[in-house]
UniProtKB/TrEMBL annotation:
Listed GO MF terms: hydroxymethylglutaryl-CoA synthase activity
Source organism (scientific name): Haloarcula rubra
Organismal lineage: Archaea, Methanobacteriati, Methanobacteriota, Stenosarchaea group, Halobacteria
InterPro entries named in the record: HMG-CoA_Synthase-like, HMG_CoA_synt_C_dom, HMG_CoA_synth_N, Thiolase-like
Pfam families: HMG_CoA_synt_C (PF08540), HMG_CoA_synt_N (PF01154)
Superkingdom of origin: Archaea
Name of this chain's protein: Hydroxymethylglutaryl-CoA synthase family protein
This protein's record includes keyword Acyltransferase: yes
C-alpha cells in the first residue's frame, strides 16, 4: 500500500509580538510568572494591520509551493481549517486560491476547495480528508494543500487574553511523503459539550474550568479508542507526542493523565510503584469522591518522579518550544507542536527514521483524535527549511498601548484607523473592501 502523509510544511506567524512578562503582565498588575510559569507562555503573535487569516494562509501556502517547485496544476485540493472565518458561505480556501493565482500563470479552477469547522481539531480533520481523498484514488496524481489558519483573539480582560496568537500552517499531503506517513488507525473521543463556543460572535465564550476537564476527558476516550485498535501502548513507543496546545500549561495536565494511563499494567508502573505505590483502583474506595482524590494525589506524586520528568523532558517539552513564543493558533496549534518536536529533534541529532509520533488533537464542543505518524527518511531536510525562528526574531515588539490599538484593528466591532507597524515585502496583504463587502487582497513585491 502506497504511503500517504505530510510531504512538507510551512509556518507563517503574525508579524507583531506581545511580550507577556515584560509588557502585558505589568500593564495588568500581574506577576509575570502567572504567564511564563502558570500558562507556560512567553509571548503572543498578532497580525499587523494588513494581515489576516487569508494573508497568513496564502503566504504559508505560497512559500510551500515555491520551495517544492509546484504549479497550480500539481494541486488538486485546497482545504482550510479555521475558527476565525469572516464569511458564513464563501470558504477561506477560495480567497487563498485567488491570492495564489496572482503569482502563478495557471489557476486552481480544477481544484476542490473547502473549509472545515470543528474548533481546533478541524486542522487534523482536514488532514484526514486529504488522506482519504488520495487513498480513494480521486486525486489523479495531484497533491492536496491543507492549511490551518487562525487569529485567536479574546475580549479585553478575558481570562484567555494572555493565550492569544495568530498564524498559519500549510501542509502538503501527498503519496510517498518526505516528512511523516499517516496511519490508518485513529482513536476518537467525542461528546456534545458547551465548553467553548462562538454563537454569532467574534470572541469566544469560555467556561475555563469545564474546558480543561472536557479536554482531558475526551483525550482519555480517544486514547482508549486508539489502544483498542493498536493494542497495548507503552510510553517508550513514541519519542514525541504533539498535543493540541491552547497553552503549554494545559499540555502539562494532559501529559500527566496520558502517562498515568499508558503505564497502567506495564513494567514502568511496577518501577514507579517502588516510589509511590500502584495506581488507585475504584473498587478499593467507598465513593467516587474518595477515588478521585486518590487519583489526584497519585498523579501529583507521579509527576514528581525522576522517571516521569525525564519522559516529559524528552517526549513532550520539545513540542512546546514554538507555542511558548507565539501563543494559541487554534487549528494550527497541534501542527506547530509537531513541527517544534521534529525541529528540536533535528537540532539535537535525534534519530527518528521509522519511529512513530503519537499526535493528540482536540476541538472544543468537543472532540479529540489520537493517531500515529511514522517519521520517514528525509524528514531532517524538510524540517531544516522552516524559518520560524527567523520570523519570530523579526517581529515588531508592541508596547501595551500599541497592543490595545492592534486589538481594536482586528476587533470586528471596532472602528480603528491605525498605521501599519511593519512594511510588507514579497507577500500577500489585505487591500480593502470590494463592492459586496468582500475582503480584497494583493501581492506586494
Amino acid at each position: 500500500m502506497t504511503a500517504v502523509g505530510i510531504d512538507a510544511m510551512e509556518i507563517w506567524t503574525g508579524k507583531l509580538k506581545l511580550d507577556l512578562a515584560e509588557t502585558f503582565a505589568p500593564a495588568q498588575g500581574d506577576d509575570p510568572g502567572k504567564y511564563t510559569k502558570g500558562l507556560g507562555l512567553h509571548a503572543s503573535s498578532f497580525p499587523d494591520v494588513y494581515e489576516d487569516i487569508v494573508t497568513m494562509a496564502a503566504n504559508a501556502a505560497h512559500r510551500l509551493m515555491e520551495r517544492k517547485g509546484l504549479e497550480p496544476e500539481d494541486i488538486g485540493r485546497i482545504d482550510v481549517a479555521t475558527e476565525s472565518s469572516f464569511d458564513n458561505s464563501k470558504p477561506v480556501s477560495t480567497y487563498v486560491a485567488g491570492c495564489l493565482e496572482q503569482v502563478y500563470d495557471g489557476d486552481f479552477h480544477h481544484a476542490n476547495k473547502g473549509e472545515r469547522k470543528f474548533a481546533c481539531i478541524s486542522g487534523t480533520q482536514s488532514l484526514d480528508d486529504a488522506y482519504n481523498w488520495i487513498r480513494a484514488g480521486r486525486n489523479r496524481g495531484r497533491a492536496a494543500i491543507v492549511i490551518a489558519t487562525d487569529t485567536a483573539l479574546y475580549a479585553r480582560d478575558d481570562p484567555g487574553e494572555a493565550t492569544q496568537g495568530a498564524g498559519a500552517v500549510a501542509m502538503l499531503v501527498d503519496e510517498e511523503p518526505s516528512l511523516v506517513e499517516l496511519s490508518t488507525e485513529q482513536g476518537f473521543g467525542s461528546a456534545d459539550e458547551t465548553d467553548f463556543l462562538k454563537p454569532n460572535q467574534q470572541f469566544p465564550s469560555v467556561d475555563g474550568k469545564r474546558s480543561v476537564n472536557v479536554y482531558l476527558a475526551r483525550m482519555r476516550e480517544a486514547l482508549d479508542d486508539f489502544a483498542s485498535q493498536v493494542g497495548d501502548i507503552h510510553p517508550d513507543d513514541y519519542p514525541l507526542i504533539p498535543f493540541h496546545t491552547p497553552f503549554p500549561g494545559m499540555v502539562r495536565k494532559a501529559a500527566a493523565l496520558g502517562y498515568r494511563h499508558i503505564i497502567r499494567g506495564t513494567d514502568v508502573e511496577d518501577l514507579v510503584a517502588e516510589e509511590i505505590g500502584h495506581q488507585p483502583m475504584r473498587e478499593d474506595f467507598e465513593s467516587d469522591d474518595e477515588f478521585r482524590d486518590a487519583i489526584r494525589e497519585y498523579t501529583d506524586a507521579l509527576t514528581e518522579t525522576e522517571r516521569y520528568q525525564d519522559w516529559y523532558a524528552d517526549t513532550i517539552d520539545p513540542t512546546l518550544e514554538i507555542s511558548r513564543e507565539v501563543g494559541n493558533w487554534y487549528t494550527g496549534s497541534v501542527h506547530i507542536a509537531r513541527a517544534a518536536g521534529l525541529k528540536h529533534a533535528r537540532e539535537n541529532g535525534r534519530e527518528l527514521d521509522g519511529q512513530q509520533l503519537l499526535v493528540a488533537s482536540y476541538g472544543s464542543g468537543a472532540q479529540a483524535e489520537v493517531h500515529a505518524e511514522t517519521v520517514v527518511p528525509g524528514w531532517e531536510e524538510e524540517i531544516a527549511q522552516l524559518n520560524i525562528d527567523e520570523q519570530n526574531r523579526k517581529r515588531y515588539d508592541l508596547s501595551f498601548e500599541e497592543y490595545e490599538q492592534i486589538h481594536d484593528v482586528h476587533n470586528h466591532d471596532t472602528e480603528a484607523d491605525v498605521e501599519e507597524f511593519t512594511a510588507p515585502e514579497s507577500e500577500f496583504v489585505f487591500d480593502g473592501w470590494g463592492r459586496m463587502g468582500e475582503r480584497k487582497y494583493r501581492y506586494v513585491e
